[in-house]
Each structure stands twice: as C-alpha cells, then as structure tokens.
Amino acid sequence: MTAGEEQGWGVGIHLGGLVVSWLAPLVIWLVCRERSQALDQHGKEALNFQITLFIAYVVGGILTIVLVGFLIIFAAWICALIFGIMGAIAAYNRQPYRYPLSIRLIK
C-alpha cells in the first residue's frame, strides 16, 4: 500500500464515522488492518470511539424521557463531529490520534 493510499484510507476511517457511524470504520479496518500498522491503529481508535458514541446515543435516547437525554445526544454529536475531524486531520498528516473520552474495547 502506498503512502497516499494509506493516508486516504486513514482519513476515510475517521470521516466515515460521521456518515455511517461504526460501519465505515469497521469495514475499512477489517479490510486494511493487515496492510498497514498505521491503518490498524486508526481503525481501532475510530471504531472504539464510534462504539462509545453508540452507547452514549442509546443512553441519551433512554433518558429523553426526562429531557436530559437530548443534551447527552447533542453533546455526543458535537464530540463526534469535532473529534472525527481532528482524527481525519491527524491521519492526513500521518500522525497517530487517540480519541478522548473513548472506551477502549478493541485493543
């Protein structure tokens, strides 16, 4: 895999999460993890973050009964947007990125 391809897939891993949640990071990680150590790391980080966001969305959805859930969902969405873009920028610059507030389920 060339450096440019690695860079493009790395950006796709992080930005794909903004579009289709955990599905894009999972598919790209499964396809590319054997080809590149950097993509393996970016994929694990993005997938862990998307799983964390999914948990936050479920909890927020349940708590919408008492209205605080809307704040949780909105905060999770803002975090997804900001941290996803930061991850994509790091991948574009060929730098590792660790999402803050992420539960590390996949190691």
Automatic annotation (TrEMBL):
The keyword Transmembrane applies. Its main location: membrane. The keyword Transmembrane helix applies. It holds the Pfam family MamF_MmsF. It is found in: Membrane. The chain crosses the membrane at residues 12-31, 51-68, 74-92. Keywords: Membrane, Transmembrane, Transmembrane helix. It is a multi-pass membrane protein. This is DUF4870 domain-containing protein. It comes from Garicola koreensis.
